Fold this sequence. Notes:
Oligomer: single chain
Low-confidence stretches: 5-36
Distance between the termini: 34 Å
Strand content: 5-15%
Number of domains: 2
Structural class: mainly alpha
Radius of gyration: 21 Å
Amino acid sequence: MGNDHSEPVDRTGSEAGDSAVPAADRERTGDDEPTDEQPELPGDVVEEAERLTRLAEEAAVDDAAAAYRQRRDDVVDAHDFTARVREEDDTLVLYPEEWVEDGTVQFDRIADTDRAVEVSLSGPDHGAEWEEIEEENQAIVDAVETAYGPAHAGNVRAFADFMGNHYLKTVADATLDEREEFLTEYYPRNAWPSKEQESIVVDSVELVAEVVDDGVPGT
């Protein structure tokens, strides 16, 4: 249900993406091109676009899949790139926006095909990494429950679901922005808390740091 339904880029000739170099092997030449130290599309942006695309494909709800694709598009759009999934070989392709008009690649605008980035979506996903993160998150939830009770633990469990599924991170590694997103966006819409839990959720999130500082087995 979560398959990427991005409109495919029309191809009327040899596709630019076919000769694009995978992100890990890209090299640039020319004084007017970004250097290896300053790539046109940073590696962390490529990784985030891949992560969000995989989440969209795995989403069980169409609205969630659409939200992941929109976030991916926003991430690459900030660098003047556009994202498409090439269905025939299950590859995420990131094109410079200047190549594309109305969803179609304009081949006369392509001077350097290496500017496109391709990421195979058929390779290993982040399942094993997610399991490791979930194990650490559950250990933190258990520690909170032992020290502060089930109401706080329920809130931290919701926080763990948010961080693991949306950012592939433990609750202990959450940034201030991620904590704010959880409290103001995810929690009210997805957590279904009791009145008690809702009244203490800010404290629950802050307790994560306390139990981690005290030492949590398995983390």
